[in-house]
Amino acid sequence: MDLTGITTLTFDCYGTLIDWECGILSALAPLRARANAVRSDDDALLDFADCESRQQAATPAMLYADVLTEVHGQLAERWGVARDAAEDRRFGASIGDWPAFVDTAAALAYLKQHFRLVILSNVDRASFSRSNVRLGVTFDAIYTAQDIGSYKPAPRNFAYLIERLGEQGVGRAQILHVAQSLFHDHAPANAAGLRSVWIDRRGDSGGWGATAAPPDGVRYEARFPSLEAFAVAHRGGG
Description:
By secondary structure, the protein is an alpha/beta fold. The protein has two domains: 8-19 and 100-235, 3-Layer(aba) Sandwich (Rossmann fold); 21-97, Orthogonal Bundle (DNA polymerase, domain 1). Helices cover 46% and strands 11% of the residues. It contains ten helices and six strands, in the order E-H-H-H-H-H-E-H-E-H-H-E-H-E-E-H. The protein has helices at 20-35, 41-58, 64-78, 85-92, 104-112, 125-132, 145-148, 155-167, 182-191, 227-235; strands spanning 8-11, 116-121, 141-144, 175-179, 195-199, 222-224. It has a six-stranded parallel β-sheet, sandwiched between helices. Strand 2, helix 6 and strand 3 form a beta-alpha-beta unit.
């Protein structure tokens, strides 16, 4: 793909830079053991995605850590066991423990030499500050759901991103959005008129993991299996 004119890469964080499925499954382990039900990791992530997307749509101003706290309680009920308030809170506080993908820090360090790097994430500021330590770079701007008052895929989030960057002299045509979730990121980026690159972290795993299924017709300009592969392609001239 031709990146001529692109000055700014905007990133989703969780699922793209941070291995949230690994983090979610690790943090759900006590509940899954308590529920004593036979279900695959993919089934657990599917239930998580359903509860999370519904909760975010219903309470757009709720902090993400609190969204996760409530989602954990809903999963307990769905899986046939009583809610445990302390366990719910521990899950909500687990965000900063979720690991970065092994290629993330090095790829971001390389891309930082060539572009402005910006975060647009469905998270609260305190939780992201813990994750940021794992990413190895200083971002030029960080926009969270807490700042915006809504969660992707709401159009408001990308409108906010475009407006804030516009105030810094960055036009829509200079932005490339880099993300894993077709549901949370690529569909609303399409609607906002932004170019995008799909970091397809799930590859051939099948299904959509911890994200809801995307609408039909989602577009992206290029697809890479990792952020490292995207950085290598840039290093090689495209």
